[in-house]
């Protein structure tokens, strides 16, 4: 009986007992690199969107005109005499 080997244990037959089929290490690294690149793209787009919104909020309604400012003169338009008793019209 010197050459007798001990009986081997039966291989597990249930999915829980079988060794999980793990992908090789380089495939996991590729997946991580792809996930990081996608995350960086989304963060960059989000940052650009925030910068655009802040810029538009701060510059809301501000614009430059290159026209000459109207000359402020004290020339008043002569008005009719309001004491004449005529009917007055008011435009609202």
Give a concise summary.
With 92 residues, the chain is mainly alpha-helical.
Explained architecture:
It is a single chain. This protein is mainly alpha-helical and 92 residues long. It has a domain at 24-60. The protein is built from one helix and no strands. The longest helix has 34 residues, at 25-58. It is rod-shaped.
Give the topology:
Blueprint: H1 25-58
Protein name: Small cell adhesion glycoprotein
GO cellular component, one term: cytoplasmic vesicle membrane
Transmembrane segments: 32-57
Which percent bin holds the helix content? 25-40%
Q: Helix segment count?
A: 1
N-to-C series of helices and strands: H
In whole angstroms, the N-to-C terminal distance is 119 Å
Spans of at least 5 consecutive residues with low confidence: none
| Overall pLDDT level | 75
Q: Outline the biggest β-sheet.
A: none
Specify the structural class. mainly alpha
What coarse outline follows from CA principal-axis ratios? rod-shaped
Radius of gyration: 42 Å
| Quantity of strands, as a count | 0
Keywords: Cell membrane, Cytoplasmic vesicle, Membrane, Transmembrane, Transmembrane helix
Subcellular location: Cell membrane; Cytoplasmic vesicle membrane
Membrane topology: Single-pass type III membrane protein
Transmembrane segments: 32-57
């Amino acid at each position: 009986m010197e050459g007798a080997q001990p009986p081997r244990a039966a291989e597990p037959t249930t999915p829980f007992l079988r060794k999980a089929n793990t992908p090789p290490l380089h495939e996991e690294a590729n997946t991580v690199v792809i996930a990081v690149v996608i995350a960086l793209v989304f963060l960059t787009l989000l940052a650009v969107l925030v910068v655009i919104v802040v810029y538009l909020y701060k510059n809301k309604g501000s614009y430059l005109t290159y026209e000459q400012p109207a000359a402020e003169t004290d020339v008043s338009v002569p008005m009719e005499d309001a004491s004449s008793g005529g009917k007055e019209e008011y435009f609202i």
